[in-house]
Task: inverse folding
């Protein structure tokens, strides 16, 4: 009886002991912490490549975007490949449509390798296009996910989905959006960048 009780207490101690190092994907991060980090960086003007970006309004956490990001992170991790086109050939717009997100504007940042949210955000800020997405003033909602599969070369795959739903109008035309190489400023329909 004493041995069983001792084993149960030791098991509980192991479960309650926090890890010394952050787990890959920072799986224990709370939504509020991630949103706070993203909104803090958006609150400060910055230069993305050669593009000056003004401070942007805070984003709201959007469960549909989180779900779409989670599904896509799992696919990328399973494929061990970083691409904006799904295995079925679906684009970001098609994936968000399938998730039933009422997209007016959307953007996607992907990364593989970094173990922490700080690392991945740092990489995105160093890349002009990713930085412009993070600072995009016309985005109002966000979802983030990370997935890692077991294997000999397992690495985290991060997906950040940014969006603006159709029911929020108008989109303010800005120099930042018109300069995005793969971007498209929407007039009547949805846009992806």
Result:
């Amino acid at each position: 009886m004493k041995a069983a009780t001792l084993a149960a207490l030791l098991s509980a101690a192991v479960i309650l002991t926090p890890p010394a190092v952050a787990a890959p994907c920072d799986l224990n991060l709370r939504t509020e912490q991630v949103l706070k980090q993203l909104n803090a960086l958006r609150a400060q003007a910055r230069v993305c490549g050669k593009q000056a970006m003004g401070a942007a309004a805070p984003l709201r956490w959007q469960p549909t975007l989180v779900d779409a990001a989670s599904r896509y992170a799992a696919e990328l991790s399973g494929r061990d490949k970083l691409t904006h086109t799904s295995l079925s050939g679906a684009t970001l717009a098609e994936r968000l449509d399938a998730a039933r997100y009422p997209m007016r504007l959307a953007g996607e940042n992907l990364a593989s390798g970094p173990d922490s949210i700080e690392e991945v955000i740092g990489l995105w800020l160093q890349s002009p296009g990713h930085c412009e997405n993070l600072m995009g003033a016309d985005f109002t909602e966000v979802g983030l996910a990370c997935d890692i599969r077991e294997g000999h070369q397992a690495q985290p795959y991060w997906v950040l989905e940014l969006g603006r739903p159709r029911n929020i109008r108008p989109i303010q035309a800005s120099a930042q959006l018109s300069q995005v190489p793969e971007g498209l400023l929407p007039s009547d329909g949805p846009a992806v960048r």
